[in-house]
Amino acid sequence: MADFETVIVETDLLILGGGMAACGAAVEAAYWAKQNGLKVTLVDKAAVDRSGAVAMGLSAINQYVGLKDGANTVKDYVDYVRNDLMGITREDLVANIARHVDSTVHLFEKWGLPIWKDEKGAYVHEGRWQLMINGESYKVVVAEAAKNALRESGVGEIYERIFIVGPLMEGDRCAGAVGFSVRENKFYAFKAKATLVAMGGAVHVFKPRSSGEGMGRAWYPPWNSGSSAYFTLKAGAEMTCQEVRFIPVRFKDAYGPVGAWFLLFKSRATNSQGGNYMVERQGELEKWGFYGRVKPVPANLRNYLGMLDTMEGKGPIYMRTEEAIGKIAESYKDDPKAYKKKMKELESEAWEDFLDMTISQAILWASTNLQPEEGSSEIAAAEPYFIGSHSGASGAWISGPEDLQTDKTRSEYFWGYDHMSTVPGLFCAGDASGASSHKFSSGSHAEGRIAAKAAVKYVVEHNTPPKVEQSTIEAIKAEILKPLEVFAQHNGATTDPDVNPNYIKPRMFMFRLQKIMDEYAGGITAQFTTNGPLLNRAIELLQFLKEDSEKLAASDLHELMRCWENVHRMWQAEAHVRTVLFREETRWPGYYFRSDKPKLDEEKWHVFANCRFDAKSNAWEMKTRPVLPVFEQKTVGRPLAAA
Ligand code: SFD
Ligand code: AMP
């Protein structure tokens, strides 16, 4: 397009995203880049102060190992994560993050994040691994440190409101990224010697529970639209755990988190008949072998027990907030003044939990006259999300650290640089990297630091500027801006710009994608259940959708972003469907159930299911990779097949 300027930016390390992992990367990269005379460039689609999952703040830091106090060991954390993921996890990656995460949390505190303390000055824990925070400004605090680090060191620059579409390649090497400004008519090509992808997970791939005016309300941020997965797939990187979606159980309709209620307030969840599914359905856990017996019960199995109640018509399921608050306050009953004070304190903690991170849930409570100390609140299993940092695991397959490898894992899990994907020069962290769940906000920041340090090392050892022809950049530019052309060419054909025989608007396109995923790939409508024939049909329909994506139309820059967000979602969807089909078992009931393969198959499927899109042959490659321990596994057995 004639009025679209092309801006070329040359840098050494390119950090994509401005969330928790990217901010960690910025802090660490600034330090190492300065020592080596290198340049670092960070690019975010939004404004770093309030971008990504932590935009609204958080009320807890979910990963703190407490190594200094001797509370836990790295191995304890690895055991926890492996058990929660039904045995499928990269121990080397989880351990690498776990051994560094405490220092990240201490940095947060130094930068001004208020972490709750008890009378003795010790951190207040929500649960074994979680710390309570006053986190409304969590992201602002973390962003400020990242911006200061880049700017004060003199090595860095930050581009905000630039939407990254995809990779720039030089043969098999990642040579940077391309994107466009969402405010000005500018197309950007960032040429880099190393690129770190930290553009979060994917939301709105599946049809959400929210509809119409409420549709932007999801648990995870709707602006994380699968850009990390698309970028790594298009660069030719091997992906892992694409079948491991995360379904969070949340306060119904506004998605308020449940962690503080279950762990800090020790609340029960009961069905409409007063039954507690975690007690009444204990027997069901036996079907899931070793993993049904671990403590805490894996998140997907907790979900599953509640889902069984819902499917049997025993809903709604309630979080018994009034009962939990009443129980905690009970010991103060003899002293009315102390009781009143305690009740006020609990009430304000309950509201703050939401006001810190899911303000809309507090608004919903207020607008429905709900007082948590008086009445219960409905909870429900939400739609599936793709997120490598929480209780899901999807992301790129990356190299682990050399020092944690065993003789058996070295050839499988290590190829030179910490947290580098299988594509040279392409690093991943946070939601972008797979098979290392439960890093959350703090672990994602720590992983960003680990990956950035390794990426700087990579640049030092491969210090050659990428060569990409200007004609290649111009061809990519034309492809990316095409939806604007399509709209300009055809919008006169109808009076309503949303309906046109020659094109499809991104919102309508998203509805098509969500319908396919919801009905065929085990969304809410299908009660999280699917099977081989349904998945094969989903693949067929996704191919038609891919054809339709050629006709996406954008009336302005904002819609152009929406077009590409949905293309990103579509690729995440395909990687998911293909991998669910590939793994011929049900391993994570409560995330999804394959009705044609309803059991765990430890013998055959105690492995990673990986995939890769090969651009040259335009085909998907599916393969398994072994799950290997880096710690002696005294706590884990595998005799499960009989279960
Ligand atoms: O209660 C592009 N999370 C929780 N973590 C905790 O530690 N404690 C909690 O209390 C947590 N809970 C929670 C959490 C998240 C949310 C939304 C709620 C509650 C309501 C999880 C963490 O937030 C999460 O693990 C990390 O933030 C993941 O970090 P990262 O860096 O992988 O993702 P990000 O922070 O969302 O940042 C993504 C960035 O990418 C940008 N971006 N930039 C350019 N071009 C594109 N195409 C891009 N696409 C995306 C984004 O703008 C952003 O900067 S609780 O539920 O457990
Ligand atoms: P959530 O609010 O569900 O994201 O949970 C926050 C943290 O608490 C995460 O680390 C969860 O894995 C953990 N968690 C939530 N509910 C439970 C539970 N019932 N038992 C054990 N851990 C939980």
CATH top-level class of the domain at 249-381: Alpha Beta
Q: What overall form do the CA principal axes indicate?
A: globular
Q: What's the CATH architecture name of the domain at 249-381?
A: Alpha-Beta Complex
CATH domain fold name of the domain at 249-381: Flavocytochrome C3, Chain A, domain 1
CATH superfamily of the domain at 249-381: Succinate dehydrogenase/fumarate reductase flavoprotein, catalytic domain
General description of the model:
With 643 residues, the chain is of the alpha/beta class. Among the domains are: 249-381, Flavocytochrome C3, Chain A, domain 1 (Alpha-Beta Complex); 479-603, Methane Monooxygenase Hydroxylase, Chain G, domain 1, CATH 1.20.58.100. Helices cover 39% and strands 14% of the residues. The chain is built from 20 helices and 21 strands. The strands form six sheets. Strands 6-3-2-10-17 form a five-stranded parallel sheet, sandwiched between helices. Strands 1-9-8-7 form a four-stranded mixed sheet. It is globular. Residues 635-643 have low confidence and may be disordered. The structure holds ligand SFD and adenosine monophosphate.
Provide a compact summary of the structure:
The chain has 643 residues and is of the alpha/beta class. It has 20 helices and 21 strands.
In terms of topology, how is this protein built?
Elements: E1 5-10, E2 13-16, H1 20-36, E3 40-43, E4 60-61, H2 74-84, H3 91-111, E5 131-132, H4 138-152, E6 156-159, E7 162-170, E8 173-181, E9 186-191, E10 194-197, H5 227-234, E11 239-240, E12 249-251, H6 259-264, E13 269-270, H7 277-280, H8 282-285, H9 289-293, H10 299-311, E14 317-319, H11 321-330, H12 336-355, H13 359-367, E15 377-381, E16 395-396, H14 410-413, E17 426-428, H15 440-461, H16 470-490, H17 506-520, E18 529-530, H18 532-549, H19 557-582, E19 593-594, H20 602-605, E20 607-614, E21 619-626
Parallel strand pairs: 1-9, 2-3, 2-10, 3-6, 10-17, 18-19
Antiparallel strand pairs: 4-5, 7-8, 8-9, 11-16, 11-20, 12-15, 13-14, 14-15, 20-21
Helix pairs in contact: 1-4, 1-15, 2-3, 3-15, 5-19, 11-12, 16-19, 17-18, 17-19, 18-19
The structure holds ligand SFD and adenosine monophosphate.
The site of adenosine monophosphate has 13 residues, from α6 and α10.
